Amino acid sequence: MPGYWFDSALCLIEETGRFHAEQRSIEIDDALIAAMHPAGSRPSQDREFVDARDLIAVPGLVNCHSHSPDNLVRSTTGDLPLELWSLTSSAGREKRSLREIYISTMLGAIEMMRTGTTAVLDHVRISPDIDGEALDAVASAWRDSGMRAVIAPVVSDRSVVETMPFEEDDLAGLDLSAYGTRTPLPARKQMAIAEAFFHRWHDAAHGRIRVAIGPSGPQRCSDDLLTAAADFSRRHDTLLHTHVLETRLQREIGLKLYGGGMIAHLDDLSLLTPRTNLVHSIWLEPDDADRIAAADATVIHNPVSNARLGSGYCSLPDLIGKGIRIGLGTDSACCNDSANLLETMKWAALVHRLRLDDETAWLGPESALRLGTSGGANVLGLKTTGRLEAGCAADITFFKRKAPAFSPLHDPVRQLVLSESGAAIDRVMIAGRVVVSNGRSTEIDETAIWDEAQAIADRRRIDGKAAQAATHALEGPIRKMRSRFNTGWAGGCSCH
Q: Which pTM value belongs to this model?
């Protein structure tokens, strides 16, 4: 692989938690940043020279929570809360071919790379059950795309009706065997599939592909499965990535199942460790943040999908104040309608101002950029990504200075987070390879992928009617159940 010399780029360099913009020449050797030279330094003769005087160099963005299977069902659900939204998205994932799984993953890779994301955690739900060949299709797509990916196969062994606070009358007289009461694979078999997948793919593609374990959520897993997942994480020194307390109904089922709530239960099972990612963490009990902080577990914040589904308010400033490590996620393209982490960073910088009168407590663009780069890399255990410094992976996004978001240029960090959508991207580099140039993927035939995705979607609209009917048999019971609770948007964290 040739080396590069990006001459005199305006680099956003993080030091002691703050960014400063400095004109530097970036020397790339193989997959790493070899050095950050003073602007105007004499370039090495064996490097490909790039005049970067009109470019802004930013660490590649890190998307800490995504679901590649949902890319094919983007915008198929209306304005619904999570429990109702999931009926359509679940049906759309049913019984996919290996090629459909591959194409769905590629759709996300294209969008993320074209908007500056270089690393992602993919929380992969294979329906109806976890399957080794299907997971291989996902991993093959990430390998072929050129992206850096942590793949966390979803495991869960409770039927859907066991995961929500239904009462017996809610379900009376309904045949839910095709979806709601369907029995998942036994926990032991699910973990065996995940174990085999780990040994096939962990550290593949020169370390770009890593494997984690992804319990869907505590309420969706038996304690035996949760403890098996914790053991997997410990033995392999890899992440345990799980949804937690995304909606008020999830809080209610947690109290029903565990008495003291989900976080306390996870703590009792020794699932809270520095390797644990707690995704969403909106409806926390008053002492939950202290438990998370004491365990050095992490929280993944998904502000766009939280708002899209009306799930509630995650008090991110309070979590950060407790010293909890935070990453940002887009969540799925079906509950966000985007995989653009630039958009998520803007939301993270602004949404908390709706609750905080004291402007000194606002996060702001600099904190949001840190969470979207080095913070996310830290949360995912990607020790050499998320920064522009010698020895780090050459995962870099270059933005054109001569673009609407940066004209005139006053504050590169603020303008990047609050003004830029990805339209100004000149090129994206991952592990020293240019994967996006002139607005197009260099490793993927984008048009062919988009054409095939459309053909799949057109066919699925017809072939998927039985699956839609099976999942939507639960719509009435869910609406009846929801009517018993105040599930409005206002709420979350300790503000029940």
A: 0.96
